[in-house]
Amino acid sequence: MLFQPRRMGVARLVVAMAIMLGSVAVAEYIKPTTYWADHTGEPRYDQIIPAKFSQWVALPFEPANVIDPVQEASLKRIYSQTFNRTFVHQPTGRVIMLSIAYGRDQSNDTQLHTPEQCYPSQGFKVESREDTTVSTPWGDIKAVHVDTRLGAQRAEPLTYFIRVGNDVARGSKERNLERIRMAMKGFLVDGTLVRVSEISTDAQGSYRLQHQFLQELLSSLTPDQRAYLIGRRSI
C-alpha cells in the first residue's frame, strides 16, 4: 500500500519521517526550544547516590584516572557530568563499580557513548552483548549485558541502561525515537548512562549481583531522585 501522509495524524507522520529520513533531519524540522534539564532541574549525582544503602558501602576514595588532554576535551563535549563510586557488598566482600555519565543535550553529535564504544578504546575486547531487563517495583528497566575482557588478566562483565528524557531507551533507534517524541513536545532531551560492573570470570553470577545492586540502589532513593536515573514514565 502506498504511503498516504494525508490520512496519517501528525504524530504518526513525524515518527514515519524519523524512521525513513533519520532522526537528525526530523529533529531539525521540529526545532525544540527548551532543554528538558531546565524543566526538571539538572541532577547532582554526587548528592543523589548514597554512600551506604542496604548491604552496600562505598569505598572512601576512588583510584585516580589519568586522562590525556584530547580525551578530556572530548569527554567535556559529550558529558555535562560524570560520577564514579565503588561499593563493597558487606556479606560477600564483592566489589561493584558504579559509573554514571550525564549529558544535558542529547542531540546526535553529543550523544552518550555506550560501553561497547568506550571499552575497546581502553584496550578491552567486547566478548558478547545481550539485551536484558532489570526487574524493579517501578517496572522492568530495559538494559544491556556486555561481557568485556582486557587481555588474559581482567574479565569485566557489566550491565548498563540509558535514560533519555523521561524514559529508558535501549539501542540507538529507541533513543532517537524518544528524542523525536520529546522534541514534538518542544524539549531538547538530556540523558543519563548508568553502568555497573565487576571484575569477575563468572559473568552470569556477576550479572545477578549487578541486578541486585541496581534494585537496592533504586529502592534507597526518593521518587524525585529515582526519576533522574529511570525517568517518571512507565518503563
TrEMBL record:
InterPro entries, sorted: EpsI_type_B_pred, Methanolan_biosynth_EpsI
Domain Methanolan biosynthesis EpsI: 15-223
Name used for this protein in its record: EpsI family protein
Gene name linked to the record: epsI
